[in-house]
Structure formats: structure tokens, C-alpha cells
Amino acid sequence: MKFSRFAKRFSEHAGIVQLMDDLGNAMTSENDILMLGGGNPAHISGMQQYFRDSLYRLINNPSRFSHVVGDYESPQGNQEFISAVAKQLNQLYGWNLTEKNIALTIGSQSAFFYLFNMFAGEDEQGKHRQIFLPITPEYIGYGDVGLSDNLFYATRPIIEEQDASYFKYRIDFDELKIKADTAAMCVSRPTNPTGNVLTNDEMNGLIQLAEDYAVPLIVDNAYGAPFPNIVFSDISPLWNPNMIYCLSLSKVGLPGTRTGIVIANEEVITLIRNMNAIINLAPANLGAMIAYDLIQSGELVRLSNLLIKNYYRERLQHTLSIVDREMDGINYLLHRPEGAIFLWLWLPDLPISTLELYQRLKERKVLVVPGEYFFPGLEEDDWIHKHQCIRLTYSMQADTVEAGIRIIAEELRNVMN
Question: Going from the N-terminus, what domains does the chain have, and what CATH number goes with each?
Fold first, then answer.
């Protein structure tokens, strides 16, 4: 068959496809794969009980249940849910949002497909415009969503080595060179894959830079406040009309409902609404309807602070103790985990690429994600650091994480000796 250039973009190898294939196979099969590579949130029993209770109320309310399963939603998304989100954010942060500032999408991934292609690519004058990533590594899912080539450019971070085998990436503001063809800037906070949390000073610097160059600043807040608030450092959520702020219900424990939330000025929200109508007819109802009561009542914020954050904090501390024990004698550094659900492991003495290490670990039924995939915008760069890092998740069951890290340490000793 002869396919279009559009189709060719989906026939080539993409890191996110490999990740989701491995994740899906591991989560649905009955084999003994140790899944340390995906971004699936933990099945926190307390949260799942709240979701079951909400779903039970939906099922026992005939009119609401009929709407959830039997009606198309507005292309902007469920209006009750949107109003509740606006009210919650205004109460918490004084953002002065209205319903015209919020739209829902079928997950954050579709939101970034919309946003990146909305701003970047070929403009009306035929000029190619790009998305600027002020710091890498960045989220694996960004790299292949563009409908044109060369959609991103990026800047290396400052690597600040700290005590006790930790390091931290910081934005190198002295090296940020904003090109004339820049369409938008984008950061994630907390950052997937590293667990980095940009400081308020770093964010304010980016906000000012975006305003100086008259481009929007997109903030991927899938792990941030107010929900799920998997943040272990002291920061403040920031938004203004020049920013685009993206939330999700996935990491509160509802990844299967595919519910993304975009907060932006009315012009951007109108375009997202129109894209929803053209591509999907409408966003899905289920996630918004399950979460509506929890957001309207303020319970989701309370549960994020008391249940979700503490769950991952305890899981993180346990995982760090395992790494410290199993990796003894191996030259490694961990990015200081300040948020999200991952560990970013730097192996300066690794004699093979992390792509090869990934394959060796996969043969031993341990899945990780090789670091090469997390540097969109630096594809032609020869920075050796890109080939020395892997991402691990600590959201799985504790025994799975422990067994997986033990095998990783064994394999590292095999390849380094």
C-alpha cells in the first residue's frame, strides 16, 4: 500500500510506542515481568474506594448515568466539571478563571498533540516554527507528536552534583538562546523522567522570558498541584494569561478514563474545543463525572495532600533504601527525586548504551526506559550523558520494585566488570 507522509510519521519507531507496548503487555499479561519502566500510577486502595463510591452514585442516578454513557458531551468538555475545576483553582490560587479558560481532552497526550501543532510547524507565511524546551531531559511523549519534522529545540541543563550520590538539573539561563522562529516554550513540573521540580525562581525567569519574546509558556503539570500533588519540595503553582497549564486525572488514579485538562486564554480554549469536535467529536464523559464530586467538594485536593503524596513519599523512601543497598560499589548518581513517580539513574561508567542495557534487562524480564528517548530537541547532539541514564518507576508493588532493582544491579556488574 502507498501511505501518505502523515502515515509515515506513525510507521517509524517511536519511544512512546515502545513504552506503551511494554506497559500494556506487562499490565495485561500473567507473566512475571517486573515493570519498572512505565508511568502507570499505583492502585492506591483508598483512592480506588472513593472512585468506586463515585461510580456507584453515578450508576444509581438514572439521569446522570444515562448522560455519561448515552450522550455526546460538549466539545469543550463536561461543563459541570469545568466549572468545579475553575472554582477550585480560583479558591486555592486566586487565578480568576472562568469556564472559558478550561477545556478537556482525551488525556494529556492528545492535549500536547493539539498544543504543539497549534503553535509550531509551518505558519501561514510558510515559515517553520519550533517549540523551545529550556531544559532537557523531558517527557518521552513529546518527541513524536509533531506533524512536521524538527519541531523542537532544547538547551542542556547545568548538572549540579550533590552529596550522597545525588545530582540535580538546573536551567542554564546564561545559555538560553531564543530563536526568532520560536512558537512556544514548554516545561514539565515535576519533570518526567527525572523527578526534577523547577524552583519558583526558575519558573519566574521562564515566565519573564516568554513575555519578553511574546510566546506562550506551556506547563505540563500532570504530577503537580493541586492534584495529584506528587511534589516533595516547596513550590507554588503559577499561571497567567500568557501561560498554558495542563492537568490530568491520570496520576490521581484514573489513567483509564483518559481525561486531560487545559487551562489557557479563551483563544486557545476555542481552538482546542474545535479540534475536539473535528478529531473526536467530544471528550469522554466518564472521568469528569467520576471526579466531579471529589473536585466540587474539595476532597480531591485533600486526598492528594494526605493520601496520594504520602503514599508515594513512603514508596520513594523504601525504593531509595533498596537502591542504596543493591547498588553498593557501583558508580551511579540519582537525580534528587523532588516529585513525580520516577528515579532517574545516571551511570557515568556504563560501557554500553542504555538502549543495549534495556534489551539485556528485558531478556531478564525487567523493563526500564532507556534515557536516549528523553532528549527531544537534542537528537543531533553528541552529549554522552544522553546514553548513560535510565528511568525507573517506583509506583509498582514494593516486591516488584525490589526484585527489579536487584536484577538491574546484577546486570550492571556484569557489563561493567
Answer: 5-47+302-416 (3.90.1150.10), 72-297 (3.40.640.10)
pLDDT of residue 14: 55
Query: What cell numbers appear for 241 in the block?
Result: 494569561
**Overall pTM > 0.90:** yes
Distance, CA of 347 to CA of 391 (rounded, Å) = 11
Helix (H, G, I), strand (E, B) or coil at 162: coil
Predicted confidence at residue 164, as pLDDT, reads 82
Does 176 have pLDDT greater than 80? yes
Position 6 scores a pLDDT of 76
For the purposes of burial, counting CB atoms within 10 Å of the CB of 321, is it exposed (0-12), middle (13-18) or buried (19 or more)? exposed
Task: Give SS3 for 399.
Answer: helix
Residue 295: how many CB atoms within 10 A of its CB?
Answer: 22
Which pLDDT belongs to residue 171? 98
Q: Is 180 exposed, middle or buried (0-12, 13-18, 19+ CB in 10 A)?
A: exposed
Residues 6+ apart with CB under 8 A from 170: 135, 157, 158, 160, 202
Q: How far apart, in whole angstroms, are the C-alpha atoms of residue 99 and residue 263?
A: 10
Q: C-alpha cell of 202? A: 526558575
CA pair distance 331, 350, nearest whole angstrom: 9
Cα–Cα–Cα angle for 108, 111, 113, rounded to 5 degrees: 115
Q: How far apart are alpha carbons 35 and 22 in whole angstroms?
A: 9
Handedness of CA 94, 96, 98, 100 (dihedral sign): negative
